[in-house]
Design a protein that fits this description.
The complex is a heterodimer of chains A (about 625) and B (about 300). Chain A is an all-alpha fold and about 625 residues long. Chain A has two domains: about 5-585, Cytochrome C Oxidase, Chain A, CATH 1.20.210; about 595-633, no CATH class. Chain A is built from 19 helices and two strands. Chain A has a two-stranded antiparallel sheet. In chain A, helix 3 packs antiparallel against helix 16, helix 8 runs parallel beside helix 11 (about 335-350) and helix 12 (about 355-380) packs parallel to helix 15 (about 430-455). Chain A is globular, with a radius of gyration of 25 Å. The two termini of chain A are about 30 Å apart. Chain B is of the alpha+beta class and about 300 residues long. Chain B contains eight helices and twelve strands. In chain B, strands 3-2-1-5-8 form a five-stranded mixed β-sheet, with no helix packed on it. A three-stranded mixed β-sheet of chain B has the order 4-10-9, covered by helices on one side. A two-stranded antiparallel sheet of chain B has the order 6-7. In chain B, strand 11 and strand 12 (about 265) form a beta hairpin. In chain B, helix 4 (about 220-230) crosses helix 8 (about 295-305). The radius of gyration of chain B is 27 Å and the shape is elongated. The two termini of chain B are about 25 Å apart. The model of chain B has no long low-confidence stretch (mean pLDDT about 95). Classes of the chains: A mainly alpha (about 625), B alpha+beta (about 300).
Chain lengths: ~625, ~300
């Protein structure tokens, strides 16, 4: 490029820097609407809850290290067991996926922010409030203790008279609002904000995964919220939705919970699939095999996931015609998972893989996902399900799926995008060591659980007798969990050190295939100084298009620098539609979250009038939020 | 109580199904590990023998291994498991020679033999070689009735009478446990199934149906009065006395049972004494309060309970 061109480009970049600048310091973080900063907030918060959930897991494993141990009594164990489940599902995995999506989806589609930046911030602050609310229950000694799926009548006022279950129900209602807000935002962002040229068949598979997940969330969470509202009406106002003596139906809780709960499994795992399909092409130096099949499979998994919930309820005594139908659906969902699995394996097989830390985690994920998937298939064999149901065999299965198959890609993804987010490289050797520690730790912790389950150990037992033949296996599991903990600590140490001392990474240390690798590390607030040209699903590998971007910037074409501007495009073909003016920093999202949290606290304490006052405050904030819409460009 | 050591046709069918599924799963996992191993060995050479660099053949591999082969295997599994094995393990549609009612309680099992006055707790006796229908219900929250060596489990749901078939091949004692999380003492809610030759079973059932023996010694008599005058009778039934409580287990034939507190401790004088003195220490969370009887009263009531054979 000529010197003249370079000077012109620099002028545009400086103007964009000025237009997109956010307040500094704490105030900047509080009022931010930048999807990258919100993504980082999600990341750090989810990581903190991961630590809490991890400590709870180690407490349980230490209690079960040998027979008749007395570290935790039954009440403490049940509280820790419940909080572990709730934390890992609602406060770690899903927000961590949201962290990845919030940070990366706009970058990958060449947009400058999410479609609704303030809604994005609101989602984060409500999520934070829900997490703090749930842990406030633990701190005041009123933790929920009826297990994460919280069956009635155990969770009814009669059998759980404390506030624990109310913390659970109200906390999760709040959490659902946050998750739904994020999902709606992803759907609109992915449909409308893709850079011109990124038609649906050129969209990265990562974005397909988030699109599928977001639709699943929008349909899966209302049943959960409904179930929770019924529960609170029963508990606080004496309704009887679940009370059989008054004409209610306790099984309705199970249906509503699992109509949410099984899609939830795919909500947890699909973003991980998306991460895997991002990492694999980069490190094997080839395009994904069977791209359209994989895209279709991601969407099918999310869809069929809604038709399998009764396989959590095969032992409740439903008619055979019902259970057979759900067993069949549970087997059908194996097919789209099989497609993805063999697409990954074939891509690695026919490419030239470089086994660096991110790819190692993906290979570890493939192995654990196959193992968790195979035991999952077994639960569609109804008689076997009814033998293994509610034993440690199930605990083993879903930890292979949730820890092995969802968290491993998340860990791989953290290493993969760490240079992009921080501008610095992690330590490769330490990264590989941490992979082997976590992989071996996972196997040693969770594999023996299959065996101990078949030997008859029910889940959620706070203790067991020395005569049961479970001692050696439990000891092994506990040792494995310490190994796993050490591996995770090493990852944190590696990243913490590298954040400040790591070697500069440059824009594209791995030769990545998606757009985010074409901008600086870390990306500027506006992501791209020029709206990128896209002609394939692997835009970062299209050198000519990138040269065209540089020419456009020098010429000041497609720069959109008059405000917080980003182009909107048509849903299917991503033809240019209009230029959107995005909102800038705003105080209203955290304030609205605060007001909603206050409503929930008052509902918990039964101060109905005060709750109404805070609801009024929330409405006032919403009014203020909409009082002054950003002026049209 | 391992599911891998079945003692009935039903449990054997499930165990066989499991070993088949396990074998196929091992083959699939080994195949996948082999492919990943090859990928590592050939990491510097693009393409793959037979496939070469053809995208079409690579997609074909995905279709073959990801769709065609799993579809065939899954249809096979579905048919065998959910029709053949399911039939083998289902509760029979018609009534069986014997029906036993098992009621889940926080945190023990009540066992009734309909048509007889017999009531006991945490120990189910059945005749060998006879199909027995267990009707599982609950008095409070959801529990799950599970004796893995004899058959699959079934939950106890409020308002439902769920059924499961037990048919033991040979005499023996088979352990069971509550499998659905039911609160504080969920881990200490076990039960035994005793399979006995039919003659022995009938004798046992006759004994169980009889009311309690009258106290024979002055100590036992005082013990009965302590039992009736204190909180004991409010929760426990002893047939043949005014004690009619229904919160805790029927104690009419307490000494016929091998354990106390749903398999938490053995049923002997020392453990029974410890249980009466401090039930919360033995089984935290259970419904029995500490009674703080005097030493004399304690010894008397212990003597009376020891006489309930």
């Amino acid at each position: 490029m000529t010197t003249l061109g370079r000077t012109a480009a620099r002028a545009h970049v400086e103007r964009l820097d000025r237009v997109w600048r956010e307040p500094r310091g704490v105030l900047g973080w509080l009022t931010t609407t930048d999807h990258k900063r919100i993504g980082l907030l999600y990341f750090v918060t989810a990581l903190a809850f991961f630590a809490a959930g991890g400590v709870e897991a180690l407490l349980m494993r230490t209690q079960l290290i040998g027979p008749d141990r007395e570290l935790l009594g039954p009440d403490a164990y049940n509280a820790v067991m419940t909080m572990h489940g709730v934390t890992m599902i609602f406060l770690f995995v899903i927000p961590m996926s949201t962290a990845f999506g919030t940070y990366l989806v706009p970058l990958m589609i060449g947009a400058r922010d999410m479609a609704f930046p303030r809604l994005n911030a609101l989602g984060y602050w409500i999520f934070l409030a829900s997490g703090l609310f749930l842990y406030a229950g633990l701190l005041v000694g009123e933790a929920p203790d009826a297990g994460w799926f919280n069956y009635v009548p155990l969770a009814s006022k009669t059998y759980s008279p404390g506030l624990g279950i109310d913390f659970y129900a109200l906390g999760l209602i709040l959490n659902s609002i946050a998750t739904t807000a994020a999902a709606a935002n992803f759907i609109v962002t992915i449909f409308k904000l893709r850079a011109p040229g990124m038609s649906l068949n050129r969209m990265p598979l990562f974005c397909y995964a988030f699109l599928a997940v977001s639709f699943a969330i929008v349909f899966a969470l209302p049943p959960l919220t409904t179930a929770l509202i019924f529960l609170e009406l029963d508990r606080q106002l004496g309704f009887s939705f679940y009370d059989i003596a008054a004409g209610g139906e306790p099984l309705m809780w199970q249906h509503l919970f699992w109509i949410f709960g099984h899609p939830e499994v795919y909500i947890i795992i699909l973003p991980a699939f998306g991460i895997a399909t991002s990492i694999i092409p980069t490190f094997v130096r080839r395009r994904m095999v069977a791209f359209p099949l994989v895209a279709l499979a991601e969407i099918l998994v999310a869809f069929i996931g809604f038709g399998v919930w009764v396989h959590h309820m095969f032992a409740v005594g439903l008619p055979q015609v019902t259970t057979i139908y759900f067993a069949a659906a549970s087997l059908i969902i194996v097919i789209p998972s099989g497609i993805q699995l063999f697409a990954w394996i074939t891509t690695i097989l026919t490419g030239t893989p470089v086994f660096k830390t991110p790819l190692l985690f993906i290979v570890g994920f493939i192995v654990t996902f196959i193992m968790g998937g195979l035991t999952g298939i077994m639960f569609a064999a109804i008689p076997f399900d009814q033998q293994a149901h509610d034993t440690y065999f199930v605990v083993a299965h879903f930890h292979y799926v949730i820890f092995g198959a969802a968290v491993f890609p998340i860990l791989g993804g953290i290493f993969y995008w760490f240079p992009k987010v921080t501008g610095r490289m992690y330590r490769e050797r330490a990264g590989q060591v941490s992979f082997w520690l976590t992989f071996v730790g996972t196997m040693v912790t969770f594999f023996p659980m299959h065996v101990v389950g078949l030997l008859g150990m029910p889940r959620r037992n706070y203790t067991y007798g020395a005569d049961r033949g479970w001692t050696g296996l439990n000891l092994t599991e506990t040792i494995g969990s310490y190994l796993l903990g050490a591996g995770l600590l090493l990852i944190v140490a590696n990243l913490a050190w590298s954040r400040f001392r790591g070697a500069p990474a440059g824009d594209d240390p791995f030769g990545g295939d998606t757009l985010e690798w074409t901008t600086t590390s870390p990306p500027p607030p506006y992501n791209y100084p020029v709206i990128p040209k896209v002609t394939s699903p692997y835009p970062a590998w299209d050198a000519e298009d990138r040269e065209e971007d540089a020419r456009r910037l020098a010429a000041g074409r497609q720069v959109l620098e008059r405000g917080h501007e980003t182009p909107a495009t048509t849903v299917l073909d991503a033809d240019y539609d209009e230029t959107l003016e995005m909102p800038a920093a705003s105080p209203w999202p955290p304030l609205l979250a605060l007001a909603l949290a206050a409503v929930v606290v008052m509902l918990l304490l039964g101060h109905w009038t005060t709750a109404v006052v805070f609801a009024g405050a929330a409405l006032a904030v919403i009014a203020a939020w909409h009082w002054k819409e950003p002026e049209a460009a | 109580m391992t599911a891998l050591d079945p003692h009935s046709d039903a449990a054997r069918a499930i165990t066989t199904l499991w070993w088949w599924m396990f074998a196929v799963a091992c083959v699939v996992l080994a195949g996948a590990l082999l492919l990943l191993g090859i990928a590592w060995l050939r990491r510097r050479s693009p393409g793959f023998p037979l496939i070469g660099k053809s995208e079409g053949l690579a997609s074909g591999m995905v279709v073959t291994f990801g769709i065609v082969i799993p579809a065939v295997a899954l249809i096979g599994l579905f048919t065998v498991a959910n029709f053949v094995v399911a039939d083998e393990t289902d509760a029979p549609a018609a009534s069986t020679p014997l029906t036993v009612e098992v009621v889940g309680n926080q945190w023990w099992w009540e066992v009734r033999y309909p048509g007889t006055p017999a009531v006991t707790a945490n120990e189910i006796h059945i005749p060998t070689g006879t199909p027995v229908t267990i009707v599982a219900t609950t008095d409070d929250v959801i529990h799950s009735f599970w004796v893995p060596q004899l058959n699959r489990k079934v939950d106890t749901i409020p308002g439902q009478r769920n059924r499961v078939l037990l048919e033991a091949d040979e005499p023996g004692r088979y352990r069971g446990q509550c499998a659905e999380f039911c609160g504080a003492a969920h881990a200490e809610m076990g039960m035994y199934v005793y399979a006995e030759p039919p003659g022995e079973f009938r004798a046992w059932l006759n004994d169980m149906a009889a009311p309690a023996r009258a106290p024979a010694t002055p100590e036992q008599r005082r013990g009965r009065d302590v039992f009736l005058d204190n909180a004991c009778a409010g929760c426990h039934t002893i047939r043949g006395t005014p004690a009619r409580g229904v919160i805790g287990p029927d104690l009419t034939h307490l000494q016929s049972r091998a354990t106390l507190a749903a398999l938490t401790v053995p049923n002997d004088a020392r453990h029974l004494s410890g249980w009466i003195r401090d039930p919360q220490h033995v089984k935290p969370g259970n419904r029995m309060p500490r009674l703080d009887l005097g030493d004399r009263q304690h010894d008397d009531v212990l003597a009376y309970l020891e006489s309930l054979r």
